[in-house]
Every structure is written in C-alpha cells, then in structure tokens.
Amino acid sequence: MAIPARLKSHLERAHVGYTPVSHVPTMGSQYSAMVLHVPGKEVAKTVALHAGKENILAVLPASYRIDLKKLSAVVGKPIALLDQDECDKLFPDCEPGAVPPFGELYEMPVYLDDALAEDPEIIFSAGTRTDGVRMGSADFVRLAKPRICSFAEKS
After folding, report:
1. Pair 1, 23: CB distance under 8 Å
2. Which has fewest Cβ within 10 Å: 121, 122, 124, 127?
3. How high is the pLDDT of residue 28?
4. % pLDDT > 70, the chain
5. pLDDT for res 12
6. Cβ contact 74:111 at 8 Å
7. Residue 12 CB burial class (10 angstroms; 0-12, 13-18, ≥19)
8. What are phi and psi of 146, to 5 degrees?
9. Could you tell me which of 35, 31, 15, 38 has the C-alpha nearest to residue 119?
10. What parts of the chain have a pLDDT lower than 70?
11. What is the Cα–Cα distance from 38 to 42, expressed in whole angstroms?
C-alpha cells in the first residue's frame, strides 16, 4: 500500500519537506520504531479519543502512554478511547491502528505531547501498517497546528 491520497495531497499543498518511510507490516508505533531501528521516542503514535461529545487526536511518542486524567484536565472534558468501529468510520482511508496525526484531514483538534515536540524530526504513520512519513517537528507543528501540552508518561 502507499500513502493515502488525502494525506499525500495535503503534504504537497502545504509545501512541507517529508520523506516516505516503508517498512514491514507492523501492529503499532513502538514495533514500527523497532523495525526502523530508531528510538520509540522519535516515532509518533496517534490515538483517537472522545473528549465529551467531540473527537480529538492525541499524538505522543511511541514509547509513552497517555495519562487520561492529565489529558482530560488539559481538554476540560472527560476522555475515552474510540472503539475500532468508530475509527473505521472516521478514518476510512486508513488501515486499523494507522491513523496519521493530521486532525485537519478529519475535522479533529490535535493535542501533541511536549515530549515529542522537543525532537527535531518525527516519524508517524501515513495511514497504513507499512508506510510512514519522516518530517521536521517544526513543519508538523506548522501544518497540524496542535495544542502542545503534557499528557503522556514513559511506558
């Protein structure tokens, strides 16, 4: 599979530099980090959540986990994970568990953990279990316009 057309055209319209990254199929961002031979802190995982009646994306290092209470305090609403059926409907152009961190493509706000924002580059899923994107963190922040805050802890 390749980078979904929606994401590819979004990146190209924004004129941001990025590098496609292919790897063997993986079932999670931490495993992707392992097969790419990079630290889990440099690979982003995107988690789709309910925040009250709204859906949001939380983006954090693969080697971290979300502190739902902390994120709930930041967002100001109760937080819960979306189930797979909801994700399939919201992200029809993505494979299960491979959501890219661009909420603007899905009309969702993005929350970026500050531990990931510190890195000069990040790698994230391109919407498939075999494709990723490497780009500068500053470019990601400029394009996705996330709220940068602290809500994750090392696993």
Report:
1. no
2. 121
3. 87
4. 99
5. 93
6. yes
7. exposed
8. -75, 160
9. 38
10. 1
11. 7
